[in-house]
Design goal:
By secondary structure, this protein is α/β, with parallel strands linked by helices. The protein has helices spanning about 20-25, 30-45, 60-75, 85-95, 130-140, 155-165, 190-195, 225-235, 260-270, 290-295, 310-320, 345-355, 360-365, 385-400, 440-459, and strands at about 20, 50-55, 75-85, 100-105, 115-120, 150, 175-180, 200, 240, 250, 260, 280-285, 300-305, 325, 330-335, 370-375, 375-380, 405, 410-415, 415-425, 430-435.
């Protein structure tokens, strides 16, 4: 019998979701309590129905059962997708005209983790103060009672149609290798991509929440070594990978090289800028200056914004942009799609682009301003310490009178490069990225800020 508890780790309430170690932080009682709180919150907003779904992590079914119990005990009716991808959950909310819900997932985190992405209104995930306030409501424990219901739904056919309606392939048939990384996209990948004129091979295609072949994060090059090898072995035009819950994309070129998402975004913006009215495009603080340069070169307006799909997705919608994204692989198409981040759709868009072009990816990348850059770097810390470290780095930069942007940690702009230092909102890490016009300057910038992170992390 599940019960309401106040023994909830505050640290799992992060900037744009709830996330922690499943068996330690997300016990049945904790999930039941959060569900009672969520149901109470939306009922006080005048709503009585929400959409839920879960990814393929081993802990997700247990959490799913506890979530249902809490929601119905506070009088909310549930439209239940059961096992699904996060983008399909987003689509189901739109299709059912229910703008609130909960998706059980820890996205690209290790297999031991799990979490909740949740929306109270406007089809947009809660973030920032909404989550802070929700934690306070949850601990307070003043919940409504009631008797809700559960109805299972399946929107696969409608979701596939929505994706198909946003694509128009050319005459060139593309050969692709697809890697769902044993994540949740594996349950629909073959059926969806079979709808299009693509010759594809799938690797790591069995649904397995232990992620036995590699970590389910396509933004990290080391996770895509199998995909690189398969692209070269098969002579494919492209390799495409997806994260654990399917809202992010990763790409390997025809030469078996990792394509960072900021370069993916350049290819997309080049393709669509003459076809859209609003030529403003958003990217996050970790993206290369190459992307900013390219948007300006094409006559567009670049907007640098904070990291986190809850923030970037809502900002792209708020400013009515046709496209935006972030280095981690979240991208938002609003020119011919519905504006939420779908790795499967993002993969199809780049394949569609290739099908209408005589050039391969490598050739399409020509003419981009090149800078020396690191990948995103992570430094282990604690959830308490990471915030303090970033604050001290900001103070250091102010004392040095550096040109800084503090919308998300700190991004320092020099005449010949930049540095980004921020704390992760999904784990106990400090993250950074550095870029410069030369390798020597890159090393100088990197050493300066890594020494600061190391110093403040130890103190």
């Amino acid at each position: 019998m599940m019960k309401i508890t106040k023994e909830i780790n505050k640290e799992i309430f992060r900037a744009y979701d709830i996330r922690g170690i499943a068996d330690r932080d997300l016990t049945d009682d904790v999930i039941y309590t959060i569900a009672r709180s969520f149901a109470t919150h939306i009922r006080r907003m005048g709503k009585d129905t929400c959409v839920i779904g879960h990814d393929n992590r081993l802990s997700s079914e247990r959490i799913h059962k506890a979530l249902i119990s809490g929601l119905i005990d506070s009088g909310v009716n549930i439209l239940d997708l059961e096992l699904t991808t996060t983008p399909m959950y987003y689509y189901a909310c739109i299709y059912e005209k229910v703008d609130c819900g909960i998706m059980i997932t820890a996205s690209h985190n290790p297999k031991e983790d799990n979490g909740l992405k949740f929306a109270f209104k406007d089809y947009l995930n809660a973030k920032g103060e909404e989550i802070t306030d929700f934690y306070e409501e949850t601990i307070k424990g003043d919940f409504l009672g009631g008797v809700g219901s559960v109805r299972k739904i399946n929107v696969k056919e409608e979701y596939f149609k929505a994706i198909n309606d946003g694509l128009e392939f050319g005459d060139k048939r593309i050969k692709a290798v697809l890697d769902p990384g044993n994540g949740t996209t594996s349950i629909i990948l073959k059926d969806l991509y079979s709808m299009f004129p693509i010759d594809f091979t799938i690797i790591n295609g069995e649904s397995d929440g232990t992620f036995p072949n590699h970590h389910p994060d396509p933004s990290i090059e080391a996770n895509l070594e199998q995909l690189k090898a398969k692209v070269l072995e098969t002579g494919a035009d492209i390799g495409v990978s997806f994260d654990g819950d399917g809202d992010r994309v990763g790409v390997i070129t025809n030469e078996g090289k990792f394509l960072p998402c900021d370069y993916y975004m350049i290819l997309i913006i080049r393709d669509i800028i003459d076809k859209v009215k609003n030529k403003t495009f958003l990217y996050d603080v970790k993206c290369s200056k190459s992307l900013e340069d390219e948007i300006i070169k094409l006559g567009g307006s670049p907007v640098c914004y904070r990291t986190g799909n809850s923030y970037t997705r809502s900002r792209v919608a708020e400013l009515d942009m046709p496209f935006g994204g972030e280095l981690s692989g979240h991208v938002y198409f609003r020119d011919r799609f519905l504006g939420f981040d779908s790795g499967l759709y993002a993969g199809l868009r780049i394949i569609e682009l290739l099908s209408r072009n005589s050039k391969n990816i490598t050739e399409l990348l020509s003419g981009i301003n090149h800078y020396e850059a690191t990948p995103e770097l992570k430094y282990k810390s604690t959830d308490e310490k990471k915030i303090e470290v970033v604050e001290k780095v900001i103070e250091y930069c102010k004392k040095k009178h550096y040109n800084i942007n503090t919308i998300d940690g700190v991004r320092v702009t020099f005449t010949d490069g930049w540095a980004s230092v921020r704390y992760s909102n999904t784990g106990p890490n400090i993250t950074s990225r550095f870029e410069a016009t030369t390798k020597e300057r890159l090393e100088e910038i990197k050493c300066e800020f890594e020494s600061l992170i190391d110093k403040y992390n130890k103190n």
